[in-house]
Design a protein that fits this description.
Elements: E1 5-9, H1 16-27, E2 30-33, H2 34-47, H3 55-64, E3 67-70, E4 76-79, E5 82-83, H4 85-88, H5 91-100, H6 104-115, E6 123-127, H7 130-134, E7 141-145, H8 148-161, H9 168-184, E8 196-200, H10 206-215, H11 218-221
Parallel strand pairs: 1-6, 1-7, 2-6, 7-8
Antiparallel strand pairs: 3-4, 4-5
Helix pairs in contact: 1-10, 2-5, 3-6, 8-9
Length: 223
């Protein structure tokens, strides 16, 4: 039996996480937050004092990561028995994740870990290369984007709500820097799949985006 996969790729801050989680919930499907796998590896490197210049050590750490995801509520991640949820969303973890994600050897090791999430009754996968590399068979494939300014404002509000005092200019330049790195890397760069549907969420509410994504899912339309 074919297992349906819906992929949502796009730059950071476009709303992929919130939209994917809600869509997975409404469809009753599994959810893969692939960015959190790269983020977990970034944390594992810090925990084990791995030199980020030693690719072999990074690959070994990636191979030996024992990761457990709990997606029943807000995502909770345990790495080698330790709850790493609080560190997962920080800017420094995201920036480190973006750097190690540019290494082909790392992507190769993490590929199967991501494919293993594909299980019945279906999967919603969010990331950068879900529709192009990890699940090329997916249908539909969504490319969710928003302007860099809008993404910076959203991130700013999120951090302020958490009581983290940040500077909007710094956030905008970090977002632009991360976009550039994710788009320009030689392997699995952030590019839309040829058969992807584009959604620009700059002027849309989350609920409007969710409704549009669901309207593209054949299993939802026929439900
Ligand atoms: O989606 P995110 O911000 O949690 O992802 C963190 C970094 O991980 C992102 O800057 C690039 C990398 N990443 C990737 O290369 N491929 C993916 N499928 C998901 C994330």
């Amino acid at each position: 039996m074919t297992i349906p996969v819906l992929t949502i790729d796009g730059p950071s801050g476009a709303g992929k996480g919130t939209v994917s989680r809600q869509v997975a919930k409404q469809l009753g499907w599994h959810y893969l937050d692939s960015g959190s796998i790269y983020r977990s590896l970034a944390i594992a490197l810090l925990q084990n004092n791995v030199n980020p210049a030693q690719v072999g050590d990074i690959v070994n750490t990636a191979r030996n990561m024992d990761l457990a995801f709990d997606c029943t509520g807000e995502l909770e991640v345990t790495l080698n028995g330790i709850d790493i949820t609080p560190q997962l969303g920080t800017e420094s973890t995201g920036n480190m994740a973006s750097k190690i994600a540019a290494l082909p050897e790392v992507r190769q090791v993490l590929l199967q870990k991501q494919k293993d999430f594909k299980k019945l009754p279906g999967l919603v996968a969010d990331g950068r290369d879900m529709g192009t590399i990890v699940f090329p068979e997916a249908n539909p494939k969504i490319f969710l984007t928003a302007s860099a300014e809008e993404r910076a404002v959203r991130r700013y509000k999120q951090l302020m709500e958490k009581g983290i005092d940040v500077n909007i200019r710094q956030i905008t330049s970090e977002i632009e820097e991360r976009d550039r790195r994710d788009k320009e890397r030689a392997i699995a760069p952030l590019v839309p799949a040829e058969d992807a549907f584009f959604i620009d969420s700059s002027a849309m509410t989350i609920n409007e985006v969710i409704a549009q994504v669901l309207s593209l899912v054949p299993q939802h339309r026929s439900a």
